[in-house]
Design goal:
The chain has 678 residues and is α+β, with helices and mostly antiparallel strands. Helices cover 27% and strands 26% of the residues. Helix 5 packs antiparallel against helix 6.
Length: 678
């Protein structure tokens, strides 16, 4: 905080209307007599720093109004002794999404050379709105926020002195390492030709998805080694298209370089596959496309305000002539030390390798469900990612920061927000219950009790909220009302979209809550505080009531809902075993039902509960678990996966919006390692 002792939160003056999806530029002189300096900076929502015209760094750690995270950027590489031009571009999202929530927009920064302060932000800093960005409110996805349009033909911002932003200082250093922004990777053009617009007034993604494409051999389209073209009137085209393959799933900052003879619109679509023989840019309400308007001549463009997850980039360049020098990404990754691959079997070695890549691409400022369409931190998803990361990377700082961030999202109803630090209109109570297990597992795996001490007040509020809901049946009823989503996994009957008449109870929620209460009891014992025995007893009583109400004697399994006629779901049986609902005398029958292949199976994410429930019962289910891993993950590999998918269905799931890189799918890394499987 002392770095900002003389600095103020500032913002652009004379901003009218809602500050939503807008960009602002700040300029000032940085006098560095020795040619050395460090910049301390925080911004809402995002920043990019340029020094003497060179891009330095970007990437705000998304935070809260009372938890403002700042970065430390070493500037020596870009400085010259004496005066330097410092430029900061700020992006303000201005809407609640899965990745961030609305805050007061502003920027604060200070530069120091050792103990000497060189610069502190204040009203003297010139600022202006950068109207070259003018998207018009199109959402990339509801989880990520807006896509972008940038017009390089428009003038630079008009600058004037800044004003105080009206933000108090609650500044904290970034709790994890800064992301590494690597040199440009350009990919390979794998398809090219000419395009004809179907509806130039439609959203960007629709135009890409619905344009008429006519492929051409590269030698027929290009005049040399570069991707240059010169169409004739007989081509009757609106321009050329090119599809670039990055060679595998990747994450990073989008960059394009092109020469065109006149001002030219370039549409840019991103995707993870070419199942439609083009990038699938328009999926429901998702607009997975951006726009760059190039000025006549040479254009180099880098978009530092949104990290993209993709394998393919598709360009529609609306010019009859030009040269495409590159389109690609500057890979943006969290620095990790990969532990040696411990697997001996060839298939298992490949599963480990692809699982590690999947995990890395879903780790940036925090754990992400997927880098492509959401980039959101969920308790359920992150549990798998954290457990796998303990073995794949030996990383403890990253999970601690993510778990601490989630605790800051506690709501008035004593549930956590579905995504931290975002704010979304729905919540999943079971995910809040899983958070207790994450904190307990972190304490066990790392030996670090400071996280549990820090978040203990939150854990107590959560569990007391659960306990107060337990009714005279001894069960905890499902949460009802607007915004409550009783989701457990993406399988029929468990996705929370089903409608049920009357008041029913759901055994998965009871199991998750019982497990959360037991985890709290273990945490209290470890910290030598609180009434651990009380919470342990409440968990035991909840398990007893769950068994009494949901056990199905004819099959030895458990109903998912009281009005079910028979057991239906593998996940339900797994949770009853994992949470200790099934008593010793019946657990073998429940386990046998779980492996009988007569139930709706667990989806990829929830196999962790099934596999653990079985392996905790000794060696007899070892071969079954290994064969299931070989079948599920081997099938993805044989279908060309270089990262593991959201579900076994792949890209066509969720009405053609399935993710092909999903952190929760790395389950085998944890199972292989924790249970010493070959």
């Amino acid at each position: 905080m002392e770095h900002f002792c003389n600095a103020q939160w500032i913002f652009c003056d004379a901003v009218s209307g809602p500050v939503v999806d807008r960009y602002f530029a700040y300029e000032c002189c940085l006098n560095a007599p020795s040619g050395k300096a460090a910049l301390y900076i925080s911004a809402h929502s995002q920043y990019a720093v340029f020094l003497n015209g060179a891009f330095v760094n970007c990437g705000q750690y998304d935070d809260y109004e009372d938890y403002q995270v700042y970065d430390t950027l070493e500037l020596d590489e870009y400085l010259q002794p004496g005066e330097n031009e410092l430029k900061i571009i700020q992006y303000v999202c201005g809407i609640n999404t899965s990745t961030r929530s609305i805050q007061v927009p502003g920027v604060i920064f200070a530069a120091w050379d050792g103990d000497d302060q060189l610069l502190a932000s204040g009203p003297f800093v010139l600022s202006g709105e950068d109207r070259r960005y003018h998207n018009g409110g199109e959402l990339f996805t509801g989880q990520l926020g807006c896509n972008f349009s940038y017009d390089a033909t428009l003038p630079d911002p008009v600058f004037a002195p800044s004003v105080p932003a009206g933000k108090e200082k609650h500044l904290f250093p970034r709790p994890i390492e800064k992301l590494k922004i690597l040199p440009l990777e350009t990919g390979k053009i794998v398809a090219q030709g000419i395009f004809l617009e179907s509806d130039p007034t439609a959203p960007k993604s629709h135009r890409l998805q619905n344009a008429f494409l006519s492929s051409k051999r590269r030698q027929d389209l290009c005049g040399g080694d570069d991707f240059s073209w010169n169409l004739s009137a007989s081509d009757r085209a609106d321009g050329i298209y090119a599809v670039i393959d990055m060679g595998g799933e990747a994450t990073g900052l989008l960059s394009v370089c092109v020469d065109v003879p006149q001002d030219t619109e370039i549409l840019i679509g991103i995707g993870e596959h070419l199942d439609d023989l083009r990038v699938r840019s328009s999926i429901g309400g998702r607009n997975l496309a951006c726009q760059y308007v190039a000025k006549a001549g040479h254009n180099e463009f880098l978009h530092p305000f949104q990290r993209f997850g993709l394998r393919y980039i598709q360009l529609h360049i609306g010019s009859s002539a030009g040269t495409l020098h590159w389109a690609g990404l500057r890979p943006t990754l969290y620095p990790l030390d990969f532990r040696p691959n411990p697997m001996k079997d060839r298939l298992h070695r490949r599963i480990w390798e692809v699982g590690c890549k999947t995990l890395q691409l879903c780790m940036h400022e925090h754990y992400e469900d997927c880098p492509w369409r959401e980039q959101a931190l969920y308790a359920m998803d992150s549990r798998v990612q954290i457990l796998c990361g303990y073995y794949a990377f030996g990383e403890h700082q990253f999970p601690r920061a993510a778990l601490s961030l989630m605790a800051k999202s506690l709501r008035e109803d004593r549930l956590l927000e579905l995504c931290a630090p975002g704010k979304v209109p729905v919540d999943i109570p079971a995910f809040t219950a899983v958070y207790l297990r994450e904190v307990w597992e972190y304490t066990c795996f790392t030996g670090d009790q400071t996280l549990a001490e820090e978040v203990l007040p939150v854990l107590l509020k959560i569990c007391n909220g659960f306990v107060e809901r337990i009714d005279k049946t001894g069960l905890i009823p499902p949460y009802r009302g607007s915004g409550m989503w009783n989701f457990y996994e993406w399988q029929p009957g468990l996705s929370g979209y089903e409608a049920y008449s009357g008041k029913t109870y759901e055994s998965p929620l009871c199991a998750f809550v019982a497990d959360a209460l037991r985890c709290l009891a273990q945490i209290l014992r470890t910290l030598k505080t609180g009434d651990a025995a009380r919470y342990e007893q409440i968990a035991d009583d909840l398990c007893t009531a769950t068994h009494r109400n949901f056990f199905h004697p004819e099959t030895g399994g458990y109903l998912t809902r009281l009005d079910d006629e028979k057991p239906l779901h593998g996940l339900t049986q797994a949770l009853m075993l994992f949470a200790g609902v099934a008593p010793k005398e019946t657990e073998d029958r429940t386990a046998q039902l779980l492996v009988s292949n007569t139930l709706i199976p667990c989806s990829v994410s929830m196999t962790i509960y099934a596999y653990e429930a079985l392996l905790q019962r000794g060696e007899r289910y070892r071969d079954y678990v290994l064969s299931e891993i070989d079948r599920v993950w081997g099938r993805m590999l044989f279908r060309g996966a270089d990262t593991f998918w959201e579900t076994e269905i792949g890209a066509d799931d969720f009405d053609y919006a399935g993710s092909l890189c999903h952190g929760w799918s790395a389950v085998p890394i944890y199972i292989f390692s924790h249970y010493h499987l070959p």
